[in-house]
Specification:
The structure is a single chain. The protein is of the alpha/beta class. The protein contains 10 helices and 10 strands. It has a domain of 124 residues: 3-Layer(aba) Sandwich (Rossmann fold). A hairpin with a 4-residue loop joins strand 1 and strand 2.
């Protein structure tokens, strides 16, 4: 069993099912990337894991314990954090104030200072800009801030929804470099990524969803070399 096991999950919003029996397994300390066409259920899967959506069927196990019906705040306390799609910083608060919001449940000032240092070490630009209003930062810097904020509770697993969305290629590369750094210190990563090639290149394992169902999965480098994956999802014809 992996650190996270999603088994036959069916979930949706007010209407029909979006996820129609999805199963994935994550290995501890590895980077996992979910790709697929629009409407495949990629972001819905992250929301179901995080408790934003309650699965209609199926189970979600984290460290061999069911989290299927837990609230997001309970799942966060279990050691899973989510960096949602789009920018969700508090724009009128400073960078450091935004980071501190990520550690709002920490009672110890010493622990808060320690976690701030970790975030600043991972993203030095945040320490340089710690007094700057978050809303005045570039999109890439805000993405770094959101990821840094997710580190404040020292999670064992981080989920990122479209971390490169709207970013210039150079900044995207920096974001993926930091994601690999997080894996290097033992953090399990699950990300949804619209830039399928770049996402898989940064990952250990890949999943492909289509119409709310599992389509393919395997080592990321194997998916990158698969002719069908190349044609359908990477835009490579040969």
């Amino acid at each position: 069993m992996g650190i996270l096991d999603v088994e036959d999950v069916v979930a949706g919003y007010d209407g029909p099912d979006i996820l129609k029996g999805v199963s994935i397994e994550l290995q501890e300390g590895k980077i996992h990337c979910i790709i697929g066409p629009n409407g495949a259920g990629k972001s819905t899967l992250l929301r179901a894991i995080y408790g934003i959506l309650r699965p209609r069927q199926g189970s979600i196990m984290y460290k061999e314990e069911s989290i299927t019906n837990l609230r997001p705040d309970q799942i966060l306390r279990k050691g899973i954090s989510l960096v949602p799609q789009g920018r969700s910083v508090f724009p009128n608060m400073s960078v450091e104030e935004n980071l501190l919001m990520g550690g709002y449940t920490i009672d110890s000032n010493d622990v808060i200072e320690s976690q701030l240092k970790k975030a600043y070490k991972m993203f030095p630009i945040l320490e340089e800009r710690k007094s700057q209003k978050a809303g005045s930062m570039s999109g890439g810097q805000q993405q770094m801030l959101e990821t840094g904020r997710s580190l404040m509770l020292d999670p064992d697993m981080i989920m990122l929804d479209e971390p490169s969305l709207g970013l210039a290629p150079k900044i995207s590369t920096q974001i993926f470099d930091r994601i690999q750094d997080l894996s290097g210190i033992g953090t399990t990563i699950l990300m949804v990524e619209q830039n399928a090639k770049q996402g898989l290149e940064a990952s250990d394992w890949g999943f492909v969803l289509k119409l709310g169902k599992d389509e393919f999965e395997g080592p990321a480098d194997t998916l990158l070399d698969d002719p069908k994956i190349k044609k359908l999802y990477l835009g490579i014809q040969k």
